[in-house]
Amino acid sequence: MKPRPSFPAKLPPAGGRSAVTLNPQTVQVNLRPIAGQGVLRGLSSPAPGRSAHVTAVPVSSGLGLDSSAVRARMVVKLAEQGVQDPWVLQAMGQVERHRFVETALAGQAYEDTSLPIGLGQTISKPNVVARMIELLRQGVPGKLGRVLEIGTGCGYQAAVLSHVASEVYSIERLRGLHEKAKKNLLPFRLPNVHLMLGDGMLGFPKGAPYAGIISAAGGEEVPTAWLEQLAVGARLVAPTVTASGHQALVVIRKTATGFDRQVLEAVHFVPLKSGIA
Ligand code: SAH
User: How far from 183 is each of 61, 152, 153, 180, CA to CA, in Å?
Assistant: First the structure.
């Protein structure tokens, strides 16, 4: 693997907070009363040696001191909606989405709805986040390698990605949101998340090749820089305007000889724009 490049904004490594290791069995115990048998069976048979890290930070929102039950209900719903990848379900169950939205919206954080994050941008619905990360990870049994996210926004998806990929490089073009994401992510102490302010349409060549590229903003077409920076065998998931003139999820897999492209369901993402603002 190439040495890790240096980044303009690297979050400090874990330390100070008491990070606890959560056995996936424990997660299942929490989920079972709501899930019933079987729905989340994937979580009971994780990959060998798999564990999940959660930070023991008290929740300061109106959700009270423990939001894990409401998150567990969201995970059950995601599974019922068809999300199967145990890594994705586990990550969605761990990341405290309410910490990424305004306090007044915290009560809606675990509903399947997109929410405003400022500067005219939105955080995607949990279902869309889970679906896209599942598509990104398709066919990968363990952790993904380096992932590039275009559109950091409030940092929520970057936090989810940090649990399913070895390194997450996330780029945002709006300074205000880049700063907000840095602030939001700080208490989580995720040393594998690297935030950059820049034009994501150019990708981030220093970190290439990527094991996955995921965009949270939709363009007229997939920028060639992303295709170039994708590793052979890796996938790119991006909302893109298709031949019908509507935005849909597009999945592109790089092969040794070219690219396989799949157009999936219709989606509504904020526009991919060039330059920094
Ligand atoms: N993943 C984010 C969703 C943010 S919405 C989250 O979890 O909150 C999409 C984001 O893409 C917006 O913040 C928007 O400013 C950003 N964006 C749009 N075009 C971009 C570009 N060329 N480079 C980087 N970010 C871009």
Answer: 16, 12, 12, 5
